[in-house]
# Entry
Amino acid sequence: MATKAFQKIYTQITKITKATCSLKAKGVGYDELATVNGKLAQVVKIIGEDITLQVFSGTEGIPTNAEVVFLGKAPTLKVSGQLAGRFFNAFGEPIDGGPVPEGKEVEIGGPSVNPVRREQPSELIATGIAGIDLNNTLVSGQKIPFFADPDQPYNVVMANVALRAKTDKIILGGMGLANDDYLYFKNVFSNAGALDRIVSFVNTAENPPVERLLIPDMALTAAEYFAVEKNEKVLVLLTDMSSYADALSIVSNRMDQIPSKDSMPGSLYSDLAKIYEKAVQFPTGGSITIIAVTTLSGGDITHAVPDNTGYITEGQLYLRRDSDVGKVVIDPFRSLSRLKQLVIGKKTREDHPQVMNAAVRLYADAANAKTKQENGFDLTHYDERTLAFAKDYSRQILAIDVNIDTTEMLDKTWDLLSTHFRPEEVNIKNSLVEKYWKE
Amino acid sequence: MATKGTVKGIIANLVIVGVTDPVSQNEICYISDGDTRLMAEVIKIIGKDVYVQVFESTRGLKVGADVEFAEHMLEVALGPGLLSRNLDGLQNDLDKMEGVFLKRGEYTFPLDKEKLWDFKPIAQAGDIMTAGDWLGEVDENFQPHKIMIPFKMTGKYTIKSIIGAGKYTINETIAVVTDEENNDIPLTMVQYWPVKKAVMAYKDKPRPFKLLETGVRVIDTANPIVEGGTGFIPGAFGTGKTVLQHAISKQAEADIVIMAACGERANEVVEIFTEFPHLVDSHTGRKLMERTIIIANTSNMPVAAREASVYTAMTIAEYYRSMGLKVLLMADSTSRWAQALREQSNRLEELPGPDAFPMDLSAIISNFYGRAGYVILNNNNTGSITFIGTVSPAGGNLKEPVTENTKKVARCFYALEQERADKKRYPAVNPIDSYSKYLEYPEFVEYISKRISADWIDNVDELKTRMQRGKEISEQINILGDDGVPLDYHITFWKSELIDFVMLQQDAFDDIDSVTPVDRQKDILDRVIALCRTEFKFANFNEVMDYFKKMINIMKQMNYSVYQSEEYHSYDKQLDMLVKERKIA
Ligand SMILES: Nc1ncnc2c1ncn2[C@@H]1O[C@H](COP(=O)(O)OP(=O)(O)OP(=O)(O)O)[C@@H](O)[C@H]1O
Ligand SMILES: [Mg+2]
# Structure
């Protein structure tokens, strides 16, 4: 970062730790940015004239006579239409060789929307994936993560969802993204001819981890620009929020804070909520929808990161490999879209809510039957029917490679119900059974 | 003269202020940051250093900024016009704020200073009164709103004069009272009260005993809550805490409903903003919003204000209770409040208790729940605050400080179970672990046998015993297999499934099923218990399952039908026929 002529340069560092360095300075604002020998840093503590700076890329090699310059502002992003189609790093600097975009400079991590100025989300986002549209319908203004094991194809599903959803902008926030995955996104988006709808902020696995802390705020500041100023429908993809949380824990450990569960900072809930709550439907038509990824370690969802995330987001989507049909499916048991109530049976056919629940219930019966089978017990005729149903349901509805519209999904499910069960076994309102049951 | 100070240090929202004059613990102060004034609360004092927690972001704040102390603790304004408001955790009126985004340092007064209220005096000159006694009343959203001797006024007061019936604003003097030292004190329709202190302006706080009807069967029938009772709903994420609370708030037979969204999702608050103005309160026929106050400190709003929000809500509840009203207070989620306490305590570098929560968490929770209750006012009227909080235990594990400490004080326990939620058995209230201590209160038993029927309590007991038995059998079947247990076991198990599906499960999103008045609940309970006591004949366990599935299906259809409608009766007939098929006479 270039320093300007009138800026005062400090050269006496009084203390250096792994993540921070301290010096004496006056007139410094909290959260203000500074450079330490050109490395970007942020004010995290002020006691009298003692200023503590968190150096994003770490303090390795910083000498006690490093040049410190305060920039007089919190981290900012210049927003304008010129962001479209561009790739940036965590500081909002271009990494695609293009020019620095012009625009209005706004602080990232800005204020929250007044809840009374929000609109209730009501617009369905169709993805064609029945495991999502039928069972876990997404809505504009929603925030929802994939809970996935690191080896699952979550980035592929996410890219599919992004491209099929009818949105004006897609903003990719990559944190600790493998370089190959970064290139994958870049290729998929450009092959789809969608590059001009996409803005990317990327911190790859090779970049210093603490820098990632800026990614979500950068992505969401850009999203707010398009949603508020241009009334656009913006979809923000955040992958992987577990890497983000890891960076939070690195910082808090280095700053000697008392860790709470799983060595995460005690403020993890608030830290994550501040990001996810940027999802919003504005009354003027603009919206921000957040689809994120939280990778699990060993499938453990009680770990502090997925656990806190689950309490914040409006549902979660689980991927699972169904070995019976050899496909990756959206697991109907733990997956949930909290906002689906706002659209199913309203924006979709009236039978949607009941059909959805009935099928999942029967799928659960199949899971019980399977346990019975594994424990060596005899199966009843009903058990056998549920197992047959489960296979068809998994292959034709839950698999992530399904791409059909919601009405087709409903018809298909009625087909399956009618094939394997009797009307009184499905627990659906009679009026609907009479109308849709396939003899 | 108010004390002034200067900012000496800043660590996130904890600011150290240097002072020379006196300040008090929990005093409010305002920090000037350019043109904005940031509100803060004193949380620790060491010598001349005062530690304050700022209710806003401290971004850009500099050492040397001026601080002015307000000479009072965090207070709320109490007066007519609070109903239907959307307030933040510090009682700012969110609708009065300009712009789409919340601005730092914008504080808006929750009451309308211009509005004329139709005042009718209740007290007369010469009356001797104490805090909380009623001077007069105004009509607020068609409910009588009592104007009282302010809670802060201790001792006895003689009414010197009281204004006649007429239209006045909240700041006009409506009465002059004389204290015991002969000082005249003018009173208006507004008073202030520090939120962290309980309002004690009542004569007695007996044990509560009157059923508070919620329309939720698993509550009213299986684990009833009472007017002035306390309850809590712990559950992992997604198990249905918020849906259950919203259902209760829509349906409960309360005069006033206060909902504190404490560190939860903004979209859930928006749902209330959007729906409540249209939904009708079935007990009065008026719009739900007219009896509701929303305190919104959503998860992206400042953490320090989150802690305040539940107290703000409780204080407003106490105010309405003092008018002799039935108040229902809901907080979602008390865990977020506890987390705010934890963040604050960590920043102060206090010695942490279990899971890094503050050591005195237990006392804080029990003090808070203690403010709810059924009271007899000085004028012998009664009022109540029923409080139901949700708890969001980390990892869904109920062995954690917030759940455990809440369990010590709340009398109803509605444990939401992950497994039930996964199976979509909503509401996912665990039928065996959950309880209502009120079922053991003789006062309640007596009340309920008069209001509903003498055999109600026995039927509820039987219901619970059967659920317990059903669970034991299902575990045995899991180990031994369907063939490994006698046929009887299958029948007993399916009878418990009948109870579960028909009585306990309830679709919160169906217009009819979502709310069941107590009379209808009694009807369902009687039917289900009668069926459970009936003996049926079966040749094998497959027949048992098929038969009870049919029975469950018919009875669910009844639940979805308008009570006593033609449709309902046609299902009733089907049920009759089904029973005759296999009943052993
Ligand atoms: N009684 C019910 N009837 C039908 N569906 C329900 C019911 N209760 C809960 N659900 C379903 O479960 C979802 C999650 O419920 P809810 O939002 O109340 O969970 P929560 O416990 O408050 O979660 P969190 O802790 O994350 O806030 C709802 O969106 C809805 O789909
Ligand atoms: Mg909730």
